[in-house]
Amino acid sequence: MINFTQKQEIDEILDILGENLSITETQHNAAVQSYKAVGNWLTNEESELARYSPVISPQGSFIIGTTIQSINPDDDIDLDVVCELNGKRPDWTQKDIKELVGDQLRNHKKYESILDDEGRRCWTLKYRENGNPNERYHMDILPAVNTTGYSIILEKAYSNLKDQSYEDLVLSITDNERIPEYLTSTEPEEWLQSNPFGYAKWFMNIADNIKGQRTKMFSLNESVNPTPKYQSERLPLQRAVQLLKRHRDIMFQDYSEDDKKQKPISCIITTLAAKAYDGEDNIYDALLNIIYKMEDHIKDGYDDKLKKYVKWISNPTNEAENFADRWAIEGSKREQFFNDWLAKLKADFGGLGNNLNRMNLNESLIKSFGEAPVTKTFSDLGNRRRVLTESGGNYIDRKQGVVGAAVAGLTNVAKVSSHNFHGNEQS
User: What 3-state DSSP class applies to 246?
Assistant: First the structure.
């Protein structure tokens, strides 16, 4: 049975590991500058979109603080952004807006060179700037129209975000698989609806509620700003989601390219994690609770198109949307892969605190998260311990032999004396 001191050490290790899996401040700033530049180009006075004040704002993991590095330094980091138009010309269809955004990107020499083929809902720019490892990313740009009269992109709206209802934050988006409306409908209310900022509000309201208390550590209003500041600290739920996503990536890294496309998607992982989270104040407890309770939030729902009951993971800002809709596609491996991944999570983390020692823990974490970030994590932990010892703030548990700075409520601890490297301990 893991004791309080051991849990604290594991929690510290998981937090440092999450730090090492996060994108760096340099990567963050490069991404922000890139989508700001795209936004400036789309508002170019010669653009047909300019009169509707298009602004590029981040969505998804970037604004809820759960973005992670790719396993392979040559792979892309995902960056999802919304191109929000404040209105449109009355005769424009989804297709018109999608193509106008694409055409405007092609009119820029650089963007034309990195523009990928048209996606179902997005245009993708594939950045390879500087050639530095893990400073490569692809930017998925989702064309959208604001039809509610509320604009998330206005400066005055940031301070009011948490006061807005989910309905106020809904956007109408393009989707070229929704035929014939993609080609014919000029009424945004009839289009597919998306609520990326409402989802972020929902997630952060849960993450920021720790044992019934608000931390106010993470500013959602700041994170949806088109030029958000880098935030290095994370709440337990945010760290848990990062670790879950990395574990998934490691598990599926050797699958075929076709099978990799069917691994559990991030929005499902993030949604189930948030629904299972119970306000734990540490990453260790949050992670274990999520792993064992996330499947409780997979329901059975009736699919009108398929005319049958299917597995249903509802979008918390739109209960009618099923994030697991592709699980029911004939020949899909998605549901089986999710169950396989969940079983491996339980096997890998169910006994994480058993027979705790650094070597066993190190080996276990490497299998789950990869050698490079885990090795760096233990190196960083050692450096922290050294600094604490030199400052007189490091302690050892006489019974467990676990060192650290958190000793509240413990009686069997002693301060670790600093060393002068000449054979004599300093007082």
Answer: helix
